[in-house]
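REQUEST FORM: STRUCTURE PREDICTION
Request ID: SP-0412
Submitted by: Lab K.M.
Chain count: 1
Length (residues): 244
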Amino acid sequence: MTLTDKVVLITGGKRIGQVVARELASRGAHIATAYRGSRTEAEQTVRDVSAAGRRAVAIQADVSREDDCRRLVADAVTALGRLDVLVNMASVYRAVPFDAMTGRDWDEILNVNLKAAFICAHAAAPHMRAQGGRIINFSDWLAASGRPAYRDYVAYYVAKAGVKALTEALALELAPAILVNAIAPGPILPPPDLSDQEKQEVADATPIGRWGGELEIARAVVALIETDFVTGETIRVDGGRHVK
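STATUS: Completed
RESULT:
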């Protein structure tokens, strides 16, 4: 699939999502970006995409809610006329000690990280079937590698492992019209509260020797949109963390 005049909906459009949106726009795509509270960033993405000569819209939605997911897809189609690519980037990464975890914690984390990907895909698929489409989900390099290396992330790990399974199941359900793949990021952007020493420790544990940066994710998204044969795959973008 070429991106010229295609419409891409990106959930979780903050930080990495902004770079992905700009990269896709530079290749000819029109962008719908979703946000829950990050309105300033979403509006900046719209300005950036518009400056590249492409159409853009920012849509407020809480993807932990099914109604919002379905409305998000409908609003994107209404605003931009069609839908060709769905990028399910929305994510919650939060430590919750197992002994303190509640059912509400579990639901909040799985709803955003897993359920939203399913609901958005379910809502998007009818709009893509006629002309073909792409769905790109976001897992995690640890879940894709089958090893939960960090304590206190039970719900997050289970959700991201579920994203990998969802990607495989949807690839079968939606073939041949829609290709479904996932990206499993590793050390891309350090969290804001990470110390310089902690950042360096992560870089040292990565065979490539550094953090990846947002553009590496954008390049992976482009590759999975442009392919006409790869489906059901979860691709780690982790600088080789999984082999060390």
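NOTES: The radius of gyration is 17 Å.
Reviewed by: T.R.
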